[in-house]
Amino acid sequence: MIRLLIIDDHAMFRAGLRKVFGDEQDIEVVDEAGDWRDGLAKLERHAVDVLLLDINLPDRSGLEVLDVLRPRFPGLRTIVLSMYCEPQYAMRAMRSGACGYVAKDMEVDELVAAIRHVARGERFVTPSIAASMLDAIDGEAASPHKRLSPRESQILRLMVAGEALTVIGSQLIINVKTVSTYRRRILAKLGVSSNAELVQYAMRHRLVD
């Protein structure tokens, strides 16, 4: 039996899922929650095999919740439910520990199949999202700056604008040593060795106005 917990802020959607899974002999919905705090409490209370996690939750996104879940529930298999089919969301979810990423408007039999795949220790994304993810990976290989994190991209733009590391640290409220660490990572990811080369890279790829 696959023990399932649902975290989604729409009560009618949760009720619909409960009805769907009620017809499946190998899936049991052990509980549900409308927000991430209640969901964490119920994960502590129940033995859960698979979690269905909405990407849009009050106060905190499902992607942020994934970062909380990974160290606290290392054996939990999570499927992210989303209205977003853009590959960056799916890739962010999978990198944060999700085992599946599915669209909320997918067919019921596909969702049931996804749960069974994930429960067996496999990963699951719908074919259309998988194709988009592969295209995005190809794009990252061609453009190294696409592999930068949001914070790294922010610091890159400030550096290209000529801001000193101390000024960047003050603006972002982080230690200058942390800014220096980000700088090293940015240079390494972009394959450049100096600020001058960084500026040239940014201009070549039109990363600055």
TrEMBL record:
Keywords, alphabetical: DNA-binding, Phosphoprotein
Keyword hit for Phosphoprotein: yes
Domain Response regulatory: 3-119
Domain HTH luxR-type positions: 141-206
Pfam families recorded: GerE, Response_reg
A GO molecular-function descriptor: DNA binding
The protein's name in its UniProt record: LuxR family transcriptional regulator
